[in-house]
Write a structure and sequence with these properties.
mainly beta, 11 strands, globular
Amino acid sequence: QVQLVESGGGSVQAGGSLRLSCAASGRTFSSYSMGWFRQAPGKEREFVAAISQSGGSTYYADSVKGRFTISRDNDKNTVYLQMNMLKPEDTAVYYCAANWGVALSTGYDYWGQGTQVTVSS
Protein backbone atom coordinates (compact mmCIF):
# COMPACT_ATOMS: atom_id res chain seq x y z
CA GLN A 1 0.00 0.00 0.00
CA VAL A 2 0.96 3.63 -0.37
CA GLN A 3 -0.19 6.70 1.50
CA LEU A 4 -0.35 10.04 -0.28
CA VAL A 5 -0.22 13.54 1.19
CA GLU A 6 -0.76 16.59 -1.00
CA SER A 7 0.48 20.09 -0.27
CA GLY A 8 0.97 23.40 -2.03
CA GLY A 9 -2.59 24.48 -2.59
CA GLY A 10 -3.76 28.00 -1.92
CA SER A 11 -5.31 31.11 -3.39
CA VAL A 12 -3.93 32.90 -6.43
CA GLN A 13 -5.09 35.45 -8.95
CA ALA A 14 -5.82 34.49 -12.53
CA GLY A 15 -2.63 34.21 -14.53
CA GLY A 16 -0.64 33.16 -11.50
CA SER A 17 1.15 29.91 -10.69
CA LEU A 18 1.14 27.25 -8.02
CA ARG A 19 3.09 24.03 -7.56
CA LEU A 20 1.39 21.11 -5.88
CA SER A 21 3.37 18.32 -4.28
CA CYS A 22 2.32 14.82 -3.33
CA ALA A 23 4.52 12.86 -0.97
CA ALA A 24 4.15 9.10 -0.98
CA SER A 25 5.05 6.62 1.71
CA GLY A 26 6.74 3.31 1.05
CA ARG A 27 9.83 2.05 -0.71
CA THR A 28 8.27 1.12 -4.05
CA PHE A 29 7.19 4.55 -5.27
CA SER A 30 8.89 4.02 -8.62
CA SER A 31 6.52 1.10 -9.32
CA TYR A 32 3.45 3.34 -9.23
CA SER A 33 1.92 5.38 -12.00
CA MET A 34 0.84 8.70 -10.54
CA GLY A 35 -1.99 11.02 -11.42
CA TRP A 36 -3.58 14.29 -10.49
CA PHE A 37 -7.33 14.80 -10.45
CA ARG A 38 -9.56 17.66 -9.41
CA GLN A 39 -13.11 18.20 -8.26
CA ALA A 40 -14.88 21.52 -8.40
CA PRO A 41 -17.99 22.24 -6.29
CA GLY A 42 -21.02 20.54 -7.76
CA LYS A 43 -19.00 18.71 -10.40
CA GLU A 44 -17.61 15.23 -10.79
CA ARG A 45 -13.95 14.52 -10.21
CA GLU A 46 -11.97 14.86 -13.42
CA PHE A 47 -8.58 13.73 -14.66
CA VAL A 48 -5.87 16.38 -14.89
CA ALA A 49 -2.53 14.71 -15.57
CA ALA A 50 -0.66 11.42 -15.23
CA ILE A 51 2.93 10.28 -15.30
CA SER A 52 4.46 6.87 -15.85
CA GLN A 53 6.54 5.00 -13.27
CA SER A 54 9.85 6.25 -14.68
CA GLY A 55 8.56 9.71 -15.50
CA GLY A 56 9.28 9.18 -19.16
CA SER A 57 5.68 9.53 -20.28
CA THR A 58 3.14 12.15 -19.31
CA TYR A 59 -0.53 12.68 -20.20
CA TYR A 60 -2.76 15.69 -19.80
CA ALA A 61 -6.39 16.66 -20.01
CA ASP A 62 -7.00 19.01 -22.91
CA SER A 63 -8.14 21.70 -20.50
CA VAL A 64 -4.69 21.97 -18.89
CA LYS A 65 -2.37 21.02 -21.74
CA GLY A 66 0.29 23.67 -22.23
CA ARG A 67 -0.34 25.22 -18.80
CA PHE A 68 0.25 22.38 -16.32
CA THR A 69 3.28 20.11 -16.02
CA ILE A 70 3.43 16.87 -14.07
CA SER A 71 6.78 15.54 -12.89
CA ARG A 72 8.14 13.16 -10.31
CA ASP A 73 11.25 12.59 -8.24
CA ASN A 74 11.49 8.89 -7.42
CA ASP A 75 14.37 9.50 -5.01
CA LYS A 76 12.12 11.77 -2.97
CA ASN A 77 8.93 9.72 -3.41
CA THR A 78 7.18 12.84 -4.65
CA VAL A 79 5.09 13.83 -7.63
CA TYR A 80 4.52 17.46 -8.59
CA LEU A 81 2.00 19.46 -10.55
CA GLN A 82 3.27 22.81 -11.77
CA MET A 83 0.29 24.97 -12.66
CA ASN A 84 0.86 28.11 -14.71
CA MET A 85 -1.50 30.60 -16.30
CA LEU A 86 -4.18 29.63 -13.83
CA LYS A 87 -7.79 30.41 -14.63
CA PRO A 88 -10.82 30.75 -12.33
CA GLU A 89 -12.16 27.51 -13.81
CA ASP A 90 -9.12 25.71 -12.36
CA THR A 91 -10.57 26.27 -8.89
CA ALA A 92 -11.07 22.86 -7.30
CA VAL A 93 -9.82 20.40 -4.75
CA TYR A 94 -6.83 18.66 -6.30
CA TYR A 95 -6.15 15.01 -5.53
CA CYS A 96 -3.06 12.92 -6.01
CA ALA A 97 -3.55 9.27 -6.97
CA ALA A 98 -1.37 6.20 -7.37
CA ASN A 99 -1.68 2.87 -9.10
CA TRP A 100 0.65 -0.11 -9.04
CA GLY A 101 1.59 -0.48 -12.70
CA VAL A 102 0.22 1.42 -15.64
CA ALA A 103 -2.60 3.91 -15.29
CA LEU A 104 -3.72 6.91 -17.30
CA SER A 105 -6.99 8.69 -16.58
CA THR A 106 -8.61 5.78 -14.73
CA GLY A 107 -7.67 2.77 -12.62
CA TYR A 108 -6.10 4.38 -9.57
CA ASP A 109 -6.25 2.51 -6.30
CA TYR A 110 -4.83 5.00 -3.81
CA TRP A 111 -5.84 8.58 -3.19
CA GLY A 112 -4.69 11.50 -1.12
CA GLN A 113 -6.92 13.74 0.97
CA GLY A 114 -6.82 16.65 -1.46
CA THR A 115 -5.60 20.23 -1.43
CA GLN A 116 -7.70 23.28 -2.28
CA VAL A 117 -6.75 25.55 -5.17
CA THR A 118 -8.69 28.78 -5.58
CA VAL A 119 -8.14 31.10 -8.53
CA SER A 120 -9.74 34.53 -8.41
CA SER A 121 -10.43 36.72 -11.40
